[in-house]
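hey can u run this one w/ zinc ion bound, need the structure tokens asap thx
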Amino acid sequence: MTSLTPRLQRLRDAGYRITHARAAVLKALEQAGGHLTSAQIVDAVAVIDPAVGRASVFRTLDLLSRLSLIRPTYTEGSGAPVFVLLPGGHHHHIICTHCGRVFEFENCGLDELSARLEANSGVHIAGHLLEFYGTCADCTASSAASSREARA
Ligand SMILES: [Zn+2]
Ligand SMILES: [Zn+2]
Ligand SMILES: [Zn+2]
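ok here u go:
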């Protein structure tokens, strides 16, 4: 096998074999930069490695979520969860609740909080998903415009 990506290395370090399904699911998510539904992952995996079946994709998504390599998030669009990667153990969104746009940011400054929560709860914290909600600049501008129209 060629050299392992950091995520495959973490999988192996956690004591798991690198199966075709595990490699293909991570590759599908990494190629897309995350933000795929399980249906989209099934489609992408079918292209990357047609031998990997749908059931193994779903088992792999469960395993990778348990290991905090990925997380399902339910905020983007329909009822189907969207899987995101947790680079460095965390992932952050600012979501416009009007148009559904998702802004990403990297530095959350939550290391200290995370350490404190771990100390207080006794839970070994492997990562976090952080989401802020609000109205984006475009939606704020267009709702200001439409309320002007309504008054006119
Ligand atoms: Zn918006
Ligand atoms: Zn994201
Ligand atoms: Zn963070």
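The longest strand covers residues 90-96. anyway lmk if its weird
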